[in-house]
Amino acid sequence: MLHVEIVTPTRVAWTGEATEVQVPGAQGELGALDGHAMLLAVTRAGVVRVSKAGGEHEDLVVGPGFAEVTPLGVTLLVDRVEPAGQIDKDKAQRDLDAAEKVLGQAMAGTDEWRDAEYQADMARARLSV
Question: Does pTM top 0.85 for this prediction?
């Protein structure tokens, strides 16, 4: 079993044991099993899937951050965590629509554009669970 911790700047948002963890890496999905080689990776906003013994799993929407994988466990340092069961899909769609409107009007690379890109990424992650 892997020990998994998902940590935000203000709290340990999730901790527990898992048979596998899937993480949204900046360059693609990452999967970790017990005994995995050491790894440090940048993560993007998306869905973390924690697979538990007995075939159960838990999905969590996370913001961008970092993942540290060791043979004993996985630690994610992210800016936010939202349990999939608490996602309001209608609000997520409204957030995505608003962010895409700003992305269509703002100059790429500006703070306004980066904020809208972040909001759009989070909204897409929420809608994917």
Answer: yes
CA dihedral sign, ordered 106, 109, 113, 117: positive
pLDDT digits (tens, 9 = 90+) for 20-38: 999 999 999 999 998 889 9
- The count of other CB atoms within 10 Å of the CB of residue 122 is 23
**What is 2-84's CATH number, 2.40.320.10, 3.40.50.300, 3.40.50.1820, 2.60.15.10?**
2.60.15.10
- Residue 66: closest CA among 22, 122, 111, 24: 24
Strands 65-70 and 20-25 turn out to be unpaired
Tell me the C-alpha distance between 33 and 96, whole Å: 33
Q: Judge whether 38 and 69 are in contact, CB under 8 Å.
A: yes
| Residue matched to tokens 């999939």 | 84
Quick one: tokens of 77? 């340092």
Calculate Rg over the CA atoms of the chain: 15
For the chain, what are the domain ranges? 2-84, 87-128
Gap between the Cα atoms of 129 and 124, Å rounded: 9
